[in-house]
């Protein structure tokens, strides 16, 4: 199954494959012709005990030529097989990576990044080994073995047949080894993935780990993983030494004994057969090198198969990002947002949103407030199509969300996420992501507009200041301001601002508030607010409790209603 899929990748490379196999056959032929040359020499000159110098030179020269030819062909054949493997693996990596990009948020919620990195790098690398080893080594060696048998049969039919009799023995050995080692290698691969995940998580969360003083516990976990890895490796080595080396050597000498005794017992014409005997012994020794080589490759072959399984498993992962339906390509012009009886659960069990309905008219501002975990960010996740609701519909300008083209949505909808993500690169690059066509001036203008310019200007390198991974050198508020500038740069019709929960200093908070007051004009805005002071101007305020909208209205109306909003408001007034 897996091999068939892998071979599909070979098809486009058939020219390279052809050359590789051609050079391989030539190399084998040159290699196997040597003993025949010597056998003829023995037959023609050694037995009559008269060898003229010229014949000796001819033998030496011929042998040298054969060696040279074998070396050149082997070189070419190696290059072509490597080329082939590298091309295949390149295509496979591209396929895996582009598939991963199409996967939905649900997939990434459930898959640790370390596992993914391991799939895309280690596992594809192992698949490359599969090509180099299976095609080059297994294929090469089996061709070589076939060549040896052909030469043997050509030399002496009966002796050749006797040698052929060991072949099933070796095949059985290989099959048994295969069967026993597969589960071990599967565990090995999984453990390696776990070790990667563990490392990745620990490194990313090192600050928290140190703050919580959990270093010891993490080391213990890491130790346990490594111990399991070690034990399985030992198991595989024990199995390999027993099944491969000892058993194969045994068969080799068994065969040698068999050939020699057959020869001794049934010698037909004595001396005349010395040349054949020489060639046979030479071939028998040559026979077991490739066989050992093949068996030696089996572990890697196994690992590679397991890796290939995992790579193709990833390629087949069905958790794709929700796609577009229908052939219409509606365009967002007004920017009206409507939720119609939307219910949603991330895991099909715990309902996070229950029958949510609301409408935000073009140019209006709606604010979502409520306790932590009440489902506010989830509303944004659905609006952006990261997940599909199980019930209900989300309409934009009167058309259902799934009917929109991805491009249209990304162009007209802007999101300032609760936990903004910054990429390694400078500030300019991070803001510029909002609109690839924007130049320096537009980037600065966007930063000024949202009030991020002041703090950027104070950085040593200004807009060229390099960000470390995830923007760890900036405060939470500063990151959100950058993310805000990024969203504004695209000039979206509909803007969703998910206020950072992180404590933001008053200065940054004022900057965000001022920016919000400006960006609201002329576009539909949804603000998910934790500081109620931010949203008193909103056209409507939706109060969430455990996935339901329990109150709605303007600031004044809600205060007058003396419900949940009133309580939240009083609490926050008390704070400040
Ligand atoms: P906060 O004010 O803290 O930002 P919120 O109102 O934005 O809270 P949500 O992020 O919408 O809350 O989360 C609502 C519920 O959904 C929570 O119970 C949370 O545990 C759950 N949840 C959020 N994201 C996921 C996810 N990716 N997978 C599974 N469950 C999730
Ligand atoms: Mg949230």
Could you list some keywords that capture this structure?
single chain; 576 residues; alpha/beta; ABC transporter transmembrane region fold; Rossmann fold; 2 domains; six-stranded mixed beta sheet; four-stranded antiparallel beta sheet; 19 helices; elongated; binds adenosine-5'-triphosphate; binds magnesium ion
Write structural notes for this entry.
By secondary structure, this protein is an alpha/beta fold. The chain folds into 2 domains: 2-315, Up-down Bundle (ABC transporter transmembrane region fold), CATH 1.20.1560; 337-575, 3-Layer(aba) Sandwich (Rossmann fold), CATH 3.40.50.300. The chain contains 19 helices and 12 strands. The strands form 3 sheets. Strands 6-9-10-3-11-12 form a 6-stranded mixed sheet, with helices on both faces. It has a 4-stranded antiparallel sheet with strand order 2-1-4-5, with helices on one face. β11 and β12 (548-553) form a beta hairpin. α7 (166-204) runs parallel beside α10. The mean pLDDT is 86. Residues 376-377, 418, 498 line the site of magnesium ion. Its EC number is 3.6.3.44. Keywords: ATP-binding, Hydrolase, Membrane, Nucleotide-binding, Transmembrane, Transmembrane helix, Transport. The chain crosses the membrane at residues 53-76, 130-153, 159-180, 237-259. Its main location: membrane. Residues 18-303 form the ABC transmembrane type-1 domain.
């Amino acid at each position: 199954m897996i091999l068939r899929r892998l071979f599909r990748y070979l098809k486009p490379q058939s020219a390279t494959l052809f050359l590789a196999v051609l050079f391989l056959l030539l190399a084998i032929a040159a290699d196997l012709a040597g003993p025949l040359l010597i056998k003829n020499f023995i037959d023609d000159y050694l037995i009559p005990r008269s060898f003229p110098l010229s014949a000796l030179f001819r033998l030496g020269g011929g042998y040298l030529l054969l060696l040279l030819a074998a070396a050149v062909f082997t070189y070419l054949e190696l290059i072509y097989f490597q080329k082939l493997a590298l091309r295949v693996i390149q295509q496979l990596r591209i396929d895996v990576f582009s598939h991963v990009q199409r996967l939905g948020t649900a997939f990434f919620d459930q898959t640790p990044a370390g596992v993914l990195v391991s799939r895309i790098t280690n596992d594809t690398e192992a698949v490359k080994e599969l090509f180099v080893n299976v095609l080059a080594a297994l294929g090469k060696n089996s061709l070589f073995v076939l060549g040896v048998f052909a030469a043997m049969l050509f030399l002496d039919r009966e002796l050749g047949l006797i040698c052929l009799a060991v072949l099933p023995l070796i095949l059985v050995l290989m099959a048994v080894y295969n069967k026993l080692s597969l589960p071990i290698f599967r565990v090995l691969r999984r453990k390696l993935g776990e070790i990667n995940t563990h490392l990745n998580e620990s490194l990313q969360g090192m600050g928290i780990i140190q703050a919580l003083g959990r270093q010891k516990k993490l080391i213990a976990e890491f130790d346990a993983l490594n111990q399991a890895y070690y034990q399985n490796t030992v198991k595989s080595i024990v199995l390999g030494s027993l099944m491969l080396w000892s058993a194969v050597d045994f068969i080799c000498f068994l065969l040698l004994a068999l050939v020699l005794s057959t020869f001794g017992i049934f010698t037909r014409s004595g001396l005349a057969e010395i040349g054949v005997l020489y060639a046979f012994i030479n071939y028998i020794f040559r026979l077991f090198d490739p066989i050992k080589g093949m068996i030696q490759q089996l572990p890697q072959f196994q690992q590679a198969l397991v890796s290939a399984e995992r790579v193709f498993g990833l390629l087949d992962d069905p958790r794709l990002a929700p796609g577009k339906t229908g052939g219409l390509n509606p365009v967002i012009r007004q920017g009206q947002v409507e939720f119609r009886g939307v219910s949603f659960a991330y895991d099909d069990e715990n309902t996070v949103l229950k029958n949510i309905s609301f409408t935000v008219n073009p140019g209006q501002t709606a604010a979502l407030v409520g306790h932590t975990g009440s489902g506010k960010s989830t509303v944004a996740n659905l609006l952006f199509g990261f997940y599909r609701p199980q019930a209900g519909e989300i309409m934009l300008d009167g058309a259902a969300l799934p009917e929109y083209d991805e491009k249209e949505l990304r162009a007209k909808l802007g999101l300032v996420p609760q936990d903004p993500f910054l990429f390694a690169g400078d500030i300019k690059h991070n803001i510029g992501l909002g609109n690839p066509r924007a130049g320096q001036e537009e980037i600065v203008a966007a930063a000024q507009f949202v009030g991020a310019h002041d703090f950027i200007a104070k950085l040593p390198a200004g807009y060229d200041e390099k960000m470390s991974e995830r923007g760890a050198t900036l405060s939470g508020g500063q990151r959100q301001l950058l993310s805000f500038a990024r969203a504004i740069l695209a000039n979206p019709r509909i803007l969703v601002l998910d206020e950072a929960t992180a404590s933001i200093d008053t200065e940054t908070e004022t900057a965000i508030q001022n920016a919000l007051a400006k960006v609201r004009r002329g576009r539909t805005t949804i603000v998910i607010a934790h500081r109620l002071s931010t949203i008193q101007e909103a056209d409507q305020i939706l109060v969430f409790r455990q996935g339901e909208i329990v109150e709605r209205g303007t600031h004044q109306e809600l205060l007058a209603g003396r419900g949940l909003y009133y309580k939240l408001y009083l609490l926050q007034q008390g704070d400040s």
